[in-house]
Design goal:
The chain is an all-alpha fold. The C terminus is likely disordered. It has a domain of 212 residues.
Length: 348
Amino acid sequence: MHFFTNFLGWGRRHWLTMLQIALSFIFLSRIFGDAALREEIQRLLWVADGRWLGVGLLSALITELLCAVRWWLMLRVFKVPVSMTRTCVFTLAGLFYSFILPGAGGGDIFRILYVIRLHPGKKIQVVASVIADRLCGMVALVIALGITLIRSDTLPLDVSSRSILKVSTFILSGPVIVIFLWWLTTFPMIRQIGAHRMPPKLRARLLAVGDGFWEILEHPREILLAIAVSCIAFAVHFATYFFSARAFELPVSLSGIFAIMPIVDALIMLPITFYGVGLRETLLQHLMGSLFGVSGAAATIASLTGFGLQAAVALVGGLLLPFTLPRRVEKAEESLSQTKSQAIVEMP
């Protein structure tokens, strides 16, 4: 009975993750249910070029390092002193946690906890830096999808692919509206309405949100630089999937990959499947088939390999976990270890 109660409690906490895993399984089962597709994937695996895969792994690593640079810029905006080296370590470690722990929020929670251990008195600033970091990434994705929309008339996409493009545009409009509403909280009229008509707690939150936006706007150079870094990071990220496709000798172009990957990334933001597995492959089957005329098997193996390269970088982040401890914690543990060793030696 106790075990059953614990299981129900665990299920209530992780129901979304279990649903995502189930949907990923359904998508993958549908994809790999085709015997001809499985045979073609086996053939493609035999001709894989390790050199392209190596370049893809390097580009996946560079993507995460660029994301670390973006976060470091946001930490500077909110006056949280963390070195570039530690920011890179925390970013890669957070990526590792996002892969191994369901519901870890992409590792953001762990990034926040790492920096709070260094600066316990700057909790609000640390959280704000991560939110601003994500928003800069969101702006870059909006720019990338906007370029795809501008080019859409010249792209040979079929009806289903154009429908996917419309859905991704609708999905990405949500965060844009949120940013717009956040910007409205800086208007004196909105703040005055909040001061007179809202409960005290809600009023304080509204004013804090507006102040946070102003604090970001007071550093336009860092913000613009962070958005530029985000655009480069997305370009390198898209290139990872290009290298993955070239490893299997697929007839794809870099400009074409740059056109379809913003569509895919916008849609896998939805918590439908586990890390986008299954949904990503289904989308790329349609988009790569429409744009490049590649088979479903080829699109599937290119997609899974691209995701696998990202997962490999996450494992590198796991190797960096011993370097995530604050120096004072490291020294305390070292001192404690020495004390225990001395006590053992002195024992009769």
